[in-house]
Write a structure and sequence with these properties.
alpha/beta; seven-stranded mixed β-sheet; FAD/NAD(P)-binding domain; 16 helices; Guanine Nucleotide Dissociation Inhibitor, domain 2; 3 domains
Length: 492
């Protein structure tokens, strides 16, 4: 029976990051993934000879000094990232806003839509930037993330002035901050904020905890871009880098049971058995409970939190050859049919359109992934099929109204439900995103990620720091750092 220092279950970006950093520190790692490809929610899959993004989104972490850029440089990864202008085009019935990768051009475009609010908008974004600068620094330097040792604690003490802007917004919904600046009736700003919050921190302006939202608003200005060929290119590059450093990759090898032993953990998988001293689980809480056969209070709490989040309804398009000749580059559209309704269930769509040069279709055509949030709890009961059908009909209506060029260019269409998303990503019930960052202080009680059981850690968007692909990767790096020390002690 194969033995190893660490078994990493799941090749989402949290698992990939943990496996890569552990192998770089000298640990013997086995990475197990039930699918044929890595990436989880952020993966590229193939159907009918065409390659699609599992979920429609943009990805950050490619700026100078940021995690993915550092890996690309240090490991010479075969990954090409392209920055677009606009990064995303927000379309509503009343306005269109192209969001560029720099702050000042964005503010100029936004203020042009609401000129009488220009002074207030700029004042709002001055406050927003102070909060974002304080929090994004933690992502740029993972050692600053909790838990931290005495040395890092004193570094935070020295940085205390940077955190002062947080005191004015902590525990409050973003809407309160907007109203402070006299912007409650500035619809272009409100629509932009609802849109960016829904795709980053999983809830709207009225519900979202202000510090998380204000930091997330910098998403477009912090090394965000398009991975040429699909985000799966980055996932595969990280998997191969881990393999080059000694990790054993086992795809299509689902873990069925996980049991504690005196010397660590015993795993029964689809392809055999494995013994590991430590385990990193890049799984939903539900999947970990199932293979473990028992739970803990913390695991149950995480599962409940995830169930209060979102699934996704999807539309995958293959465009006709030569489609959209005036926009050959990859681009992203965010569509809102009704700015005053919830940004869910087909009213709000995020669309990722591949570049001509990516040749993703069987004959070199372009592909499109379109997604909308659906509440998980409402799509697990009876009559799910008819409810999903209604959502997809609304998605089609929003697409026809706001992006008719995609409808006109469609050669093939494939719909997807949360159940479909579960099949493409391996995530129970098709859960997407992370736990919604709703207003209140409860989030700050869980700004650490201790082991679930001794020697078993979780990574991914269900645990801190959660949410984005970058955040889950940083969480994997953080856990790897903690585990590497323990592994060296155990091996000595």
């Amino acid at each position: 029976m194969r033995t190893c220092d660490v078994a990493v279950i799941g090749a989402g970006f949290g698992g990939l990051a943990a496996a890569l950093e552990l192998t770089r520190s000298g640990a013997d790692v086995v990475l197990l993934e039930q699918l044929r490809y890595p990436g989880g929610c952020a993966s590229t899959f193939t159907r009918g000879g065409a390659r699609y993004e599992s979920g429609a989104t943009l990805f950050s972490g490619f700026g100078e000094g940021q995690l993915f850029r550092r890996w690309m440089d240090e490991l010479d990864l075969d990954v090409e990232v392209r920055t677009m202008d606009p990064l995303v085009e927000l379309r509503t019935p009343s306005f269109t806003l192209g969001v560029p990768p720099e702050r000042e051009p964005f503010l100029t475009r936004l203020c042009a839509l609401a000129p009488r609010h220009e002074r207030s908008i700029r004042a709002f974004f001055v406050e927003q930037r102070k909060v974002a600068d304080a929090l994004w620094a933690l992502f740029d330097e993972p050692t600053l993330l909790p838990p931290f040792d005495a040395r890092t604690f004193f570094r935070h003490v020295g940085r205390a002035p940077r955190y002062l802007p947080l005191l004015r917004v902590i525990g409050l919904p973003l809407e309160t901050v907007v109203r402070r600046h006299g912007l409650a009736d500035c619809q272009p700003l409100r629509t932009f904020l609802d849109a960016v919050c829904q795709i980053t921190v999983q809830c709207g302006v009225a519900e979202v905890e202000a510090p998380f939202a204000l930091a997330a608003m910098d998403y477009y200005f912090r090394g965000t871009g398009h991975v040429h060929g699909g985000i799966g290119q980055l996932a595969w590059a990280l998997a191969r880098a881990a393999e080059a450093h000694g990790a054993e990759l086992r795809f299509t090898d689902q873990v069925r049971t996980l049991a504690r032993t005196d010397g660590g953990w015993h795993l029964k998988t689809r392809k055999g058995e494995l013994h590991a001293r430590q385990v990193v689980a890049n799984l939903t809480p539900h999947a970990l409970r199932r293979i473990r056969g028992e739970s803990t209070a913390r695991l149950d709490r995480l599962a409940t939190n995830v169930e209060g989040g979102w699934g996704a309804a999807m539309i995958y398009l293959r465009l006709a050859e030569g489609a959209l000749p005036d926009r050959p580059e990859a681009h992203h559209l965010e569509l809102v049919a009704d700015e005053h309704a919830a940004f869910t269930e087909g009213n709000h769509l995020f669309c990722s359109i591949s570049a001509v040069a990516e040749k993703r279709g069987p004959n070199g055509e372009r592909t499109v992934t379109i997604s909308t949030h659906v509440p998980s709890a409402a799509f697990r009961g009876d009559d799910v099929a008819s409810r999903i059908t209604k959502v997809q009909e609304r998605m089609a209506h929003t697409l026809d109204r706001l992006a008719p060029e995609l409808t006109a260019a469609t050669a093939h269409s494939m719909t997807g439900s949360p159940r479909t998303f579960e099949r493409f990503t391996g995530r129970d019930f098709g859960y997407v995103g992370g736990i919604p960052r709703t207003k209140g202080l409860h989030h700050y009680r869980h700004l650490t990620n201790p082991p679930i059981w001794p020697g078993l850690w979780m990574v991914g968007d269900s645990v801190f720091p959660g949410q984005s692909t970058l955040a889950t990767a940083l969480g994997g790096v953080k856990v790897a750092g903690q585990l590497a020390g323990e592994t060296r002690v155990a091996s000595a």
